[in-house]
Amino acid sequence: MSIAVTQRGFEPSRSNTNLQETVFTQASVRQQGVRRLFTIPLYGDGRGTEATTLIAPGIRTRDGQTRDLVIHGIMSDYVEAHDADTGQPVWRQCLGVAIPGSKAIDTYLINDHWGFLSTGILDLADGAWGGVSWSSPDGSVAKAAFWFHWISIVDGSPLAPPLSLEGAVYNPGGGIASQKFSSAARKQRCGLAMATIGGAKTVFIAAGSVSESLASNRGWVVAVDVTAKGATKVAAAWSSTARYSGAGIWMGAQAPAVLGNKLYLMTGNGAFDPPTDLGECLVELQYDPPSGDAPARLHATDWFAPFSDAARNGDDPTLPQPLPKAGGQSGEGGDGDASNTDAFTDMDLGSGGLGIIPELGCALGAGKDGIVYVLRLGAFGKTQNADLAPAKIAGNYAKAKYIGWFTFFPGFGISPSPTDMTTLNKLFDGKTHHQHSTPVAYKSPVHGWMVFCWGENSSLRAWKVNADLTLAFLASSDETASPNTGGAGGMPGGMISLSANGAAAGSAVLWASVPYGNANSEITNGRLLAYDPENFAARGDGSLRIQKLWDSQDWGLAYVFNKFLPPTPANGRVYLANYAGGVDVYGP
């Protein structure tokens, strides 16, 4: 029986692990290999989709057939469904006018269009797909707006009118002015999340900004109530900065993690002045559904900040943002802004996704420093500005269960939790080591709880999660991301996922898509790999190597790398959108 894939990361914890895979095993992949079965062409855009594949199994379509459907929102502002087993088209819907690639949105002009950028959400109970389009009536950036669509998975017909996110309001209270969601400033890359809380079925939409260097830069989470048939509505909103700017939410396109009425996410460059301004933070949000006369509410209930942008800039680390410098005043788009003041104050903590392990009661995530932070759920510590002072910073670090080098190892004696954060303002080994994927979390029958990461210009790395929530390094791969780049290297590292048949021995396979070049500034080919994530081989120096099971490079299987997309292994298939207008489908 086919399984559904309803959201990015497979489940609300964002484990990036599918535990219902019965076809692929370590033995089958090693012995039989993987081949490209077919490619699904996507309509209207030269690059195709930047969303992970969602799967709706056993859908009776209008032609009377029962099929497993794969559904993609496309950058052309179309949504398409195809037969998951054959790739045959089933339905297509146009839901807006996409914006042609523009430097007003992205410097490198790699994108053909900007339309459906994020991964949508499937609600099988209501037979619905939800997604956010970036649409403009005349195709111009100036008139572009974000719209939430709630459509039928049977034929793509609307289940509710399109809902504009423009003007969603966050009122921080305390006499501070309200913030209004402005589409002109936003970039909605994060996958969508969904939960039913207090009887209210709610979709959560996280967003960052087009420009990190403007005063309009901030992060947003918008809650959309989809409970009522035939209608959707904005129920609540939250902005990550209310008094200053910054703290965009993009997380390498991952969705916020969800547990009960809590959402977990990470923010990027921006002001730190809690509780209203939470730049460079791991954040816990709480959603209170509407009750009686009380409207729904989104509010931050916990957070942890390992550093401030002021600290990275060499200023007093307790300041809410860096001091102004020549060329502009803070908050006015000049060099003094709290974002992107130079290569090292552009150290987004939120460049990668945050995952949670509910069984262990912890959250973990890493950003551009390649440093991982493991926190106890419900005890992030509510860092205050004063906690970042040199005399108190050790106490702030102690709020985390573990802080350590994650995507790479810079050498002994270099602390990942220094008193002076400017000591990290350097390119270790001359390369960037940013984290842009979300750590894969897997409970192995061999090692217990494990996490995996693959940072820029580095290798796949495996860790054991100890009972006290510290991490112990286990092994790494010989293969590296972006090997064909010079200088500081290439982006974004490896995008990874894992499939397994529950806790069955030998069933776990780790899948990775990695670039050869720099996928941030150029079109580059990719490499699809399958690994044994549990049984390591010894190297001559005594270290352990993660063993390769299969490698597209060995078979001459070229594809154009898609920057933030991990493979989607499900039902004996691996779905991987290329950046040449289609989705490649692999199988035995």
Low-confidence stretches: 328-341
> What is the mean predicted local confidence, pLDDT?
95
Instruction: Give the termini distance in whole angstroms.
Output: 18 Å
Gross geometry = globular
Approximate helicity band: under 10%
* Assembly state (oligomeric): single chain
Number of strands: 41
- β-sheet strand percentage: 35-45%
Major β-sheet, in short? 6 strands, mixed
Question: Radius of gyration over alpha carbons?
Answer: 22 Å
Number of helices: 3
Please identify the structural class as seen in this structure.
mainly beta
Describe the structure in your own words:
The chain is an all-beta fold. Helices cover 3% and strands 37% of the residues. The strands form eleven sheets. Strands 1, 34, 35, 36, 37 and 38 form a six-stranded mixed sheet that branches. Strands 15, 16, 17, 18 and 19 form a five-stranded antiparallel sheet that branches. Strands 2-41-40-39 form a four-stranded antiparallel sheet, with no helix packed on it.
Which keywords apply here?
588 residues; mainly beta; 6-stranded mixed beta sheet; 3 helices
List the helices and strands and how they pair.
Layout: E1 17-18, H1 26-32, E2 35-41, E3 54-60, E4 66-73, E5 78-83, E6 89-94, E7 99-100, E8 113-114, E9 121-123, E10 128-135, E11 145-152, E12 163-164, E13 169-170, E14 179-180, E15 186-187, E16 193-197, E17 200-209, E18 220-225, E19 233-239, E20 257-259, E21 262-266, E22 272-273, E23 277-278, E24 282-288, E25 297-304, H2 309-312, E26 355-357, E27 362-366, E28 371-376, H3 393-397, E29 402-405, E30 440-444, E31 448-454, E32 459-465, E33 471-480, E34 495-499, E35 509-515, E36 525-538, E37 544-551, E38 559-560, E39 568-570, E40 573-577, E41 582-587
Parallel strand pairs: 1-34
Antiparallel strand pairs: 2-41, 3-4, 4-5, 5-6, 7-8, 9-10, 10-11, 11-12, 13-14, 15-17, 16-17, 17-18, 18-19, 20-21, 21-24, 22-23, 24-25, 26-27, 27-28, 28-29, 30-31, 31-32, 32-33, 34-35, 35-36, 36-37, 36-38, 39-40, 40-41
